[in-house]
Design a protein that fits this description.
Keywords: Hydrolase. Belongs to the metallo-dependent hydrolases superfamily. Adenine deaminase family. Pfam families: Adenine_deam_C, Amidohydro_1. This protein has 581 residues and is α/β, with parallel strands linked by helices. The strands form five sheets. Strands 1, 2, 3, 4, 5, 14, 15, 16 and 17 form a nine-stranded mixed β-sheet that branches. Strands 18, 19, 20, 21, 22, 23, 24, 25 and 29 form a nine-stranded mixed β-sheet that branches. Strand 26 (559-562) and strand 27 (565-568) form a beta hairpin. Helix 10 (236-244) packs across helix 11 (260-270). 51% of the residues are buried.
């Protein structure tokens, strides 16, 4: 285990020095490179020597020997550090491996990931084995340590036990605690969460907040309790308040909150022109959002909005690395850093022509390097197709609750009084109310109510994708809901749309029923089809995947469906418990 504490062992460090001494050749030599030097805040010329996965020299000198060295004249290219995504949720139907591979083609070579799916779907030993095995891919993968499930799950004290949290915080790949979706508990006296924050601070690790709409006083309190950063600002005033209270501000541009253009306009309006305490993130966007790029898309928006070019790149590279105390190894092109380098056609175009990740080509002259990310074997981690050894029946689809859930937008839900007759097996398509059932994936409990505003014509949707991996059924027709469930069960998990006992579309999720194994480019097509079919049937919001994910999420108002039952978020009360089957 001791060897894992250091990226390079002593023998590797000696070899790196030997390259400078001329006894070993570099593996790659980048000659005449115009590159972003963030120390001098200038575009400078230099020769860059790379040995395996490390930059061993940047300067005016050339190596004495170049045997077995790839020599590249970079006179007509611009070099910048590989981009860093500081806030990824690598389970939005895609998985961490496919996200890393796809993002690398757009220059994002380091990703800091939410560990929630690993906590909920892996045993701790399997999760840490997975983290270790991910070190072999070209992308550098870091992680968060969640302190709560952001819903009301059964036996949460086991998944988020003190020993489990402590083990995660101690892991070398974990850079921060959070995000703090359970911060109201902290303010209300949860000393265990406060202790975990203290432990993270003791280990010199950061705490990521999640404070939508928080007042100045609340932000000040959370800073006193240990928060370092927040990504929930939705206007210039909220950015200003966070900066005033000492926060690092992470500017978000995601599929449910594509805010960056407006945020930058607001900053200009308010005269905020200092960017050193800011970074860019995509906050777990769903795959179609990434069609035009990942972090490079955000840099482009910043440049187009008048952010100084140097700062636009810094917000996606060295600002993030400095914040997480990893700038000695990431975020800049300098001696000793990991060889993550993007080759650009021009300063104004952040989408790279070629990409080096850990000194390996993952993209070359505009073309993806095949085999850079080998096929990943999920078998050893227990992620296999979903096996449901229970049957769903019409008895499970009984609806008698006095109120249901009304969708205000993609993710906000409120209670509403049910006034229609719900005793029949089919509902009219003249209104936007649907049957809704959530069932434990082990088949032990269920909860049934009505969902208003999701669609007006959807006959049936079955999904094993949810916050906790429990089964969601939505529709106008109970028979179609049964049919959709059985098809979802047959294919080992996924999302299925059914109409008149015929499959409209399906999206398989063979990794525990919550993630796809397909490359993101293929998943993107499936997801677009799903979205189009839902829109045809009356879905009026911008992201159905987040709608499914957040139906259980108690970090958002006002009412949620959880493993404990219908939950009032504001009053922290279970209104109707789940029913045992």
């Amino acid at each position: 285990m001791l060897e894992q504490r250091y990226r390079w062992k002593n023998k590797h460090l000696r070899m790196h020095v030997s390259v400078l001494d001329g006894t070993i050749s570099p593996t790659i030599l980048l000659k005449n490179a115009t590159y972003l030097n963030q120390t001098f805040r200038k575009w400078m010329k230099a020769h860059i020597w790379i040995f395996q996965d490390r930059i061993v020299y940047v300067g005016e000198n050339l190596p004495k020997h170049v045997e077995n060295c790839e020599v590249i004249d970079c006179s007509d290219q611009i070099l910048v550090p590989g981009y860093i995504e500081p806030h990824a949720h690598p389970f939005l139907l895609y998985n961490p491996h496919t996200l890393a591979e796809y993002a690398s083609q757009f220059g994002t070579t380091t990703i800091i990931n939410d560990n929630m799916p690993l906590v909920l779907n892996f045993e701790k030993k399997e999760a840490f084995s997975y983290l270790n095995d991910l070190q072999s891919i070209p992308t550098t993968m870091f992680w968060w340590c969640r302190f709560d499930s952001q819903t009301e799950i059964l036996h949460e004290e086991e998944k988020f036990s003190h020993s489990n949290i402590k083990s995660w915080l101690e892991h070398e790949s974990v850079l921060q605690g959070g995000e703090l979706t359970g911060w109201p508990k902290l303010l209300n006296g949860d000393d265990m969460m406060l202790h975990w924050i203290q432990e993270a601070k003791r280990m010199r690790k950061r705490i990521e907040g999640h404070f939508p709409g928080a007042s100045e006083k609340t932000l000040a309190k959370m800073m006193l309790l240990g928060a370092d950063c927040d990504h929930e600002a939705i206007n210039g005033e909220e950015i200003y308040t966070r900066l005033m209270q000492g926060y690092m501000v992470s500017l978000r541009h995601s599929s449910i909150r594509p805010d960056l253009p407006d945020l930058l306009d607001d900053m200009r309006r308010m005269g905020i022109d200092a960017y050193d305490r800011m970074m860019l993130n995509t906050d777990g966007a769903t795959s179609p959002f990434y069609e035009q790029g990942v972090t490079d898309q955000l840099i482009r928006i910043a440049i187009e909005k008048g952010v100084p070019v140097m700062d636009a790149y810094n917000m996606a590279t060295v600002n993030i690395a400095r914040y997480y105390n990893i700038d000695y190894i990431h975020g800049n092109i300098a001696t000793g850093r990991v060889a993550n380098i993007n080759f650009l056609s021009s300063i104004e175009n952040p989408t790279p022509v070629s990409v080096l990740a850990k000194g390996r080509w993952v993209k070359r002259d505009g073309v993806k390097v095949e085999g850079a990310y080998p096929q990943f074997d999920w078998g050893p981690y227990g992620l296999k197709p979903l096996e449901l050894n229970w049957q769903l029946s019409m008895d499970d689809l009984q609806f008698s609750m006095p109120f249901g859930i009304k969708m205000e937008n993609s993710v906000i839900t409120k209670p509403y009084s049910i006034s229609i007759d719900v005793s029949s097996d089919e509902l009219s398509t003249n209104h936007d109310e649907s049957f809704f059932t959530m069932i434990d994936r082990k088949g032990t409990w269920r909860i049934s109510t009505m969902l208003k505003g999701f669609t007006s014509k959807l006959q049936a949707l079955a999904s094993s994708f949810s916050n906790t991996g429990d089964i969601i059924l939505i529709g106008k027709s109970k028979q179609d809901m049964l049919f959709a469930f059985n098809r979802m069960k047959e294919m080992g998990g996924g999302i299925v749309l059914v109409e008149n006992r015929k499959i409209v579309c399906e999206l398989p999720l063979p990794l525990a029923g919550v993630m796809s194994s397909l490359p993101i480019e293929e998943l993107m097509l499936q997801q677009k089809t799903l979205f189009a079919e839902l829109v045809k049937r009356g879905y009026a919001f911008n992201d159905p995947i987040y709608s499914l994910l957040f139906l259980q999420s108690t970090h958002l108002p006002y009412i949620r469906v959880t493993q404990q039952g219908m939950y009032d978020v504001i009053n922290k009360t279970v209104l109707f418990p789940t029913i045992m089957r």
